[in-house]
Write a structure and sequence with these properties.
With about 450 residues, the chain is an alpha/beta fold. It is built from 16 helices and 17 strands. The protein folds into 3 domains: about 5-45, no CATH class; about 110-340, 3-Layer(aba) Sandwich (Aspartate Aminotransferase, domain 2), CATH 3.40.640; about 350-450, Alpha-Beta Complex (Aspartate Aminotransferase, domain 1). The chain is about 40% helix and about 15% strand. The longest helix has 21 residues, at about 345-365. The N and C termini lie far apart (about 85 Å). Belongs to the class-V pyridoxal-phosphate-dependent aminotransferase family.
């Protein structure tokens, strides 16, 4: 028998050894996938890297040449209604073009390099310089972020405090309960958010493993004050992890991961980040990673387990081939393009542009004589607006008319009032590209559609 099979058996036996700690991180078999050689003891025999073919180098250089937010004079996309919902949003041409990259190996060095740059770029987007912070990019939707939190940071029987500002708090709570977590919801009236004194009272009554807050609840357009909340938690219940659902906020609302001492911010690719749907994106603090590593039971998800994903993300960021489950090279390249565009300018400028656009939308809504679900200015999100329709008018009365005018709004989502309001998304390139008229077009279309159904301000 040759030495090679025995080395591979040794490798597998190390994985299956009954006495090894269950939280020892999975070996991602990067040595096998990258076609390295091993000696009989399983040690990697280092070889000189193969020269990348000149044509492949040229193709990769062209693919990496992203023009940072230089608006084109005309979009190359087919004519279509402006998608003004709270995600998915309109996409930049360069982002969509990067999706057409030729098929490539997910453990090939060109793609690994791109993935590594994506993870580094996410650190800048979330504003963390702490090397202990850990970004994850996993194929899935924002909902997968909930599963990752529940499966990795909580154990059955743990207590979670969920701050409720709409539909998505109910869903996060349901997810946590699916994993055996005991959930307490602190609810606010529709259009409002739990007040800090209420949160403080709840934290003093019981010890919670995590507290979750939806930064912007897409069902109501309510913006939560994350910084003050985190300060409160660290003062009153410092052991409690601060978990932020930032699906509808990352990329359009200010988030300072380190400065605000956040433990988890989860999001998705298709909203303000401006990439097609299909990627679950999450940033985890070093403190939260230590909580994960100290858990007494196995993570209660396989696909979402950080036991499996952590070595993969660490290897990708170090530009090393690795494998657990197949990512989408095209989506990761689209995310790379979008992050390159976003980070080509100061984030403060991006946030200011979203705030200015939001104020323009909200002024128009007020001028029409309409009201928002989030009636208090401090509760109003900058990337979307939830708008009460006039009495006697429902979403089916106006949404078809908007579509005929080339604009798509979303209907209501909050189950208690779904028939009474519509949702207007204003984020990403519709805000940052000065050549686009999406927002003005949407405002005018809404005004005309209301007049058509007999409403006058």
């Amino acid at each position: 028998m040759s030495s090679r099979p025995s080395a591979r058996l040794d490798l597998f036996s190390r994985h299956l050894a009954p006495n090894k700690p269950f939280l020892e991180l999975n070996t991602p078999f990067s040595t096998e996938r990258a076609a390295h050689l091993e000696d009989p003891q399983g040690n990697i025999i280092r070889t000189k890297p193969a020269q990348q073919p000149a044509i492949e180098q040229e193709q990769e250089q062209k693919a990496a040449q992203v023009q940072p937010e230089e608006p084109a004079t005309m979009s190359s996309q087919p004519s279509h209604p402006a998608l003004m919902i709270p995600g998915p949003i309109e996409f930049d041409d360069a982002v969509l073009q990067s999706m057409s990259h030729f098929s490539e190996s997910h453990v090939g060095q060109p793609f690994v390099n791109i993935f590594g740059e994506v993870l580094t770029g996410l650190r800048k987007l979330f504003q963390t310089t702490d090397p202990a912070s850990q970004p994850f990019v996993v194929s899935g939707s924002g909902t997968l972020g909930w599963d990752q939190v529940a499966a990795n940071l909580c154990e059955p029987g743990d207590e979670a405090l969920v701050l409720h500002t709409g539909y998505f708090a109910d869903s996060f709570a349901d997810c946590l309960e699916t994993y055996g977590v005991k959930v307490t919801q602190l609810k606010a009236p529709i259009g409002d958010r739990p007040q800090l004194d209420e949160v403080e009272k709840a934290l003093k009554e019981k010890k919670y493993k995590i507290i979750t807050v939806t930064h912007v609840d897409t069902s109501t357009g309510v913006l939560s004050e994350v910084r003050a909340l985190s300060e409160l938690v660290h003062r009153v219940s410092p052991e409690t992890l601060v978990v932020v659902d930032g699906v509808c906020s990352v990329g359009c609302e200010e988030i300072r991961f380190d400065d605000w001492k956040l433990d988890v911010v989860l999001t998705a690719s298709q909203k303000a980040i401006g990439c097609p749907a299909g990627l679950s994106i999450i940033m985890v603090s070093g403190r939260a990673m230590e909580v994960f590593k100290a858990r007494k039971t196995r993570p209660t998800s396989y696909f979402g387990s950080w036991k499996n994903w952590l070595p993969i993300m660490q290897n990708y960021e170090a530009k090393k081939p690795s494998y657990f489950a197949t990512p989408s090279p095209q989506l990761v390249r689209a995310l790379h393009t979008s992050l390159t565009q976003i980070l080509s300018r100061p984030l403060e400028q991006r946030f200011a542009e979203h705030k200015a656009a939001s104020q323009r939308v909200k002024k128009a809504i007020s001028d029409f004589g309409l009201k928002q679900l989030a009636s208090k200015p401090e509760n109003q999100a900058n990337g979307m607006t939830a708008i009460y329709l006039p009495e006697g008018i429902s979403p089916p009365d106006v949404l078809p008319s908007l579509l005929k005018k080339g604009v798509v709004f979303a209907g209501g989502l909050h189950r208690d009032i779904a028939s009474k309001y519509v949702r207007f998304g204003h984020m990403g390139v519709s805000v940052t590209d000065p050549n686009r008229t999406d927002i003005d077009k949407a405002i005018e279309a809404l005004k005309e559609s209301l007049v058509e159904v007999g409403y006058s301000a």
